[in-house]
Write a structure and sequence with these properties.
heterodimer; A: about 110 residues; seven-stranded mixed sheet; B: about 120 residues; mainly beta; about 0% helix; globular
């Protein structure tokens, strides 16, 4: 099973600033990496797939990068609605696995 | 707009069974793989099972293999998860999720239901 490790666990950022979230895979997943946003009491929402492609409806301030084992989700100019938990997920091999999440909180 | 509505959750005793359903609408159900993903209270996400559009391919997490069965009825646009021999650690919100690509099982989901809570406790 591929283990996905996200860092940091919690990130405190002020609105208007940028944020960088990291995700590391225990073995290469090529570019088969997705990012999801989850707000309390809601289902996850797909933001990024293929490591760097924005999903339909995902704002342009969200961007993804990386390949192999190291991935990054960058959010430029944080809006109030961006404060949530973010998960990375690999779909290169079954079982598909998620990272433990990064909580993005208001500083 | 794509809609996924889960039902069937509830309280069940350890060792018991439960059947979850997901009613899908506003898309060509048979052309998309479908998944169940769960989230224990206050915890992260775990992919439980996935089934291809035709139903001919299924995968299960090791944690549920042999106890859970995923199935679909393309004539009724319904996805199901039969859960047997339930354990306390199966307590979670179970989400139904639609695969993102038409006619190809890709493994990431672009639409999720609101989830149904399963509680396994005596």
């Amino acid at each position: 099973e591929i283990v996905m490790t996200q860092s940091p666990a919690t990130l405190s950022v002020s609105p208007g600033e940028g944020a960088t979230l990291s995700c590391r895979a225990s073995q290469s997943v090529s570019n088969n990496l997705a990012w999801y946003q989850q707000k309390p009491g809601q289902a996850p929402r797909l933001l990024i797939y293929g490591a760097s492609s924005r999903a339909t409806g995902s704002p342009a301030r969200f961007s993804g990068s990386g390949f192999g084992t190291e991935f990054t989700l960058t959010i430029s100019s944080l809006q109030s609605e961006d404060f949530a938990v973010y998960y990375c997920q690999q779909y290169n091999n079954w079982p598909y696995t998620f990272g433990q999440g990064t909580k993005l909180e208001i500083k | 707009e794509v809609q996924l509505v889960e039902s069937g959750g509830g309280l069940v005793q350890p060792g018991g069974s439960l059947r979850l359903s997901c009613a899908a609408s506003k898309f060509t159900f048979s052309s998309y793989a479908m998944s169940w993903v769960r989230q224990a209270p206050g915890k992260g996400l775990e992919w439980v099972s996935i089934i291809s559009g035709s139903g001919g391919v299924t995968y299960y997490a090791d944690s549920v293999k042999g106890r859970f069965t995923i199935s679909r009825d393309n004539s009724k646009n319904t996805l199901s998860l039969q859960m047997n021999s339930l354990r306390a650690e199966d307590t979670a919100v179970y989400y139904c999720a639609k695969d993102a690509r038409w006619e190809v099982l890709v493994g990431y989901s672009d639409c999720w239901g609101r989830g149904t809570l399963v509680t396994v406790s005596s």
